[in-house]
Write a structure and sequence with these properties.
Strand content: 15-25%
Strand order of the largest sheet: 8-7-6-5-4-3-10-9
Helix content: 25-40%
Largest sheet: 8 strands, parallel
Radius of gyration: 17 Å
Shape: globular
Structural class: alpha/beta
Number of helices: 9
Order of helices and strands: EEEHEHEHEHEHEHEHHEH
Oligomer: single chain
Distance between the termini: 24 Å
Length: 278
C-alpha cells in the first residue's frame, strides 16, 4: 500500500489525510474563500500545520448543478495555485482535482504529484493515456453523468455491487494503459441518493476486493447535513463520525476540509488498534 509521489514513497498502511483547497468561487462549502495568493498560502499553511499529508487542489466545482468553467480558466487557476503553494511549501504533495486531461498535464507540469478524477476517465477519453504517460498516482472515483446532471442518475440494482463492478471495469482499463498507482474512491454524494450513500458506507469494506487503497470523501456533504435539515457549516460533527466509521472499515485516505478533527480521528483509531493488539 505505497504510492510514488514525485519520487517519495507514501505508505498508506497508516491512514493519511488529504486536505481540500478549492480555488473556485462555486464550491459548496468554501467557494470564493481562496482566490488570491495570500489566502491560498494562509489556508495551505493551516492544512499542513494541522497534519495534512496531501493538499487536494481544485479549480472546478463538482457540487450538484455547479457552473461549468472553461478548460483554459481551470488550467490557469490550477497552474498558478500549484506554483504558489510549492514556492512557500516546496515539500508539499499536491493532488489535482480534475476530470480534464489537459488540466492534469498542466498541474503535474507545475509540480503536483497526483491526479484525482471524479469521473474515473468518463468525461475525457484522454485522461487514462495522459496519467499513464505522466506516471503519477491516480484516484479513480465512481460517478455517473457529470456534475450538472449526476443527481438524476441514481438508479442501481444494488449500489455496492454496482459501484464495485464499475470500479473493476475502470481499474482493468486503467491498468491496460500501464497505470501503476491506483487509488479508488466510491464517490459519496456523486449520482447517489442520501440512502444509497449510507448503504455504500455500511458496506465500504467490500471495496477491499480490489486490493487497492481506498479514499473516502464525505466532508460536510449533503448526506450529513440533509439528514439533519441543516447546512454544510453545521456538518463537522457528522463528518467526524463518518470518518471514524470509514477508518474502521479500512479507509486509507480521508479527504477533508477540517484536518485537525480528521487527525484526531486517526490518532484515536490507531490508539484503539494498538490496545487491541496488546
Amino acid at each position: 500500500m505505497t504510492i510514488n509521489c514525485n519520487g517519495n514513497l507514501i505508505d498508506l498502511s497508516s491512514p493519511k489525510i488529504m486536505g481540500i483547497l478549492n480555488v473556485t468561487s462555486d464550491s459548496f462549502f468554501d467557494g470564493g474563500s481562496y482566490t488570491n495568493p495570500q489566502s491560498i498560502v494562509k489556508q495551505c499553511e493551516k492544512l499542513l500545520s494541522e497534519g495534512a499529508d496531501i493538499i487536494d487542489l481544485g479549480a472546478y466545482s463538482s457540487r450538484p448543478g455547479a457552473i461549468d468553467i472553461s478548460e483554459s480558466e481551470e488550467i490557469a487557476k490550477i497552474s498558478s495555485a500549484t506554483e504558489i503553494i510549492l514556492k512557500h511549501f516546496p515539500e508539499t504533495i499536491i493532488s489535482i482535482d480534475t476530470f480534464r486531461a489537459k488540466v492534469a498535464n498542466a498541474g503535474i507540469a507545475a509540480g503536483a504529484a497526483i491526479i484525482n478524477d471524479i469521473s474515473g476517465g468518463d468525461l475525457d477519453d484522454k485522461m487514462f493515456e495522459t496519467v499513464a504517460n505522466l506516471n503519477v498516482p491516480y484516484i479513480l472515483m465512481h460517478m455517473k453523468g457529470n456534475p450538472q446532471n449526476m443527481q438524476t442518475q441514481t438508479s442501481y440494482k444494488n449500489i455496492t455491487t454496482d459501484v464495485n463492478l464499475h470500479l473493476s471495469e475502470k481499474i482493468a482499463k486503467a491498468k491496460s494503459y500501464g497505470m501503476n498507482d491506483i487509488i479508488i474512491d466510491p464517490g459519496f454524494g456523486f449520482a447517489k441518493t442520501l440512502e444509497q450513500n449510507y448503504e455504500l458506507m455500511n458496506h465500504l469494506e467490500m471495496l477491499h476486493f480490489h486490493n487497492l487503497p481506498i479514499l473516502v470523501g464525505i466532508s460536510r456533504k449533503s448526506m450529513i447535513y440533509k439528514l439533519f435539515n441543516s447546512t454544510p457549516q453545521e456538518a463537522l460533527n457528522g463528518t467526524t463520525i463518518l470518518n471514524t466509521i470509514a477508518l474502521q472499515k479500512g479507509a486509507h485516505i480521508l479527504r477533508v476540509h477540517d484536518v485537525k478533527e480528521a487527525k484526531e480521528c486517526i490518532t484515536i483509531y490507531q490508539q484503539l488498534n494498538s490496545t487491541a493488539v496488546k
